[in-house]
Design the sequence.
């Protein structure tokens, strides 16, 4: 199978948003819905696509890599967590029931190369595409001077946790998911880092 890896372009923004929705288990869609308004008729996916079409910011196509055959089949979004974009209001649990983003803010690892989302379309999974995307992202992080990489994963997804562990990530912190009808998972989310 011939898979090509390339930097994303603004034209990939809808594919990126679709894949981010998959990898975030609904969290991203809830965030995008906050920007939907009735008169415009925009959907959450429309808003997400606009986010990723931007040239600036963490949630930009410029921070994404695309895996493609004759069409895009996978994507990774990664960027550094620095003093500039670190969540200043992150705190340990317990959390208010209306702050669904609280555990994710708490689990940010300052001064790390953050893999915010990685996803491959179902028919192309288990073919090494996700690993290659992660390898390329980690390589970019090292080139930018980051010795630690981080990601957030759902603890109940044991196969995914084991996969990340096989790539050198270790669980360093956990927090409970704030339950919400739009979030497709429950239990805990964990911070995984390459630094011990």
Sequence:
């Amino acid at each position: 199978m011939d898979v090509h890896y390339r930097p994303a372009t603004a034209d990939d923004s809808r594919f990126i948003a679709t894949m981010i929705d998959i990898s975030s288990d609904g969290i991203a869609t809830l965030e995008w819905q906050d920007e939907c308004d009735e008169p415009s008729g925009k959907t959450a996916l429309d808003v997400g696509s606009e986010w990723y079409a931007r040239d600036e910011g963490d949630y930009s196509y410029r921070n994404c890599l695309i895996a493609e055959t004759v069409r895009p089949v996978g994507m990774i979004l990664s960027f550094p967590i620095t003093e500039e974009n670190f969540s200043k209001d992150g705190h340990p649990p317990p959390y208010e029931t209306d702050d669904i983003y609280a555990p994710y803010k708490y689990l940010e690892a300052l001064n790390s190369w953050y893999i915010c989302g990685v996803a491959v379309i179902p028919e192309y999974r288990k073919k090494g595409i996700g690993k290659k995307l992660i390898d390329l992202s980690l390589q970019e992080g090292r080139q930018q001077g980051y010795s630690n990489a981080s990601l957030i994963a759902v603890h109940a997804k044991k196969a995914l946790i084991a996969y990340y562990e096989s790539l050198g990530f270790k669980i360093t912190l956990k927090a409970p998911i704030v339950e919400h009808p739009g979030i497709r998972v429950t239990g805990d989310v964990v911070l995984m880092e390459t630094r011990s």
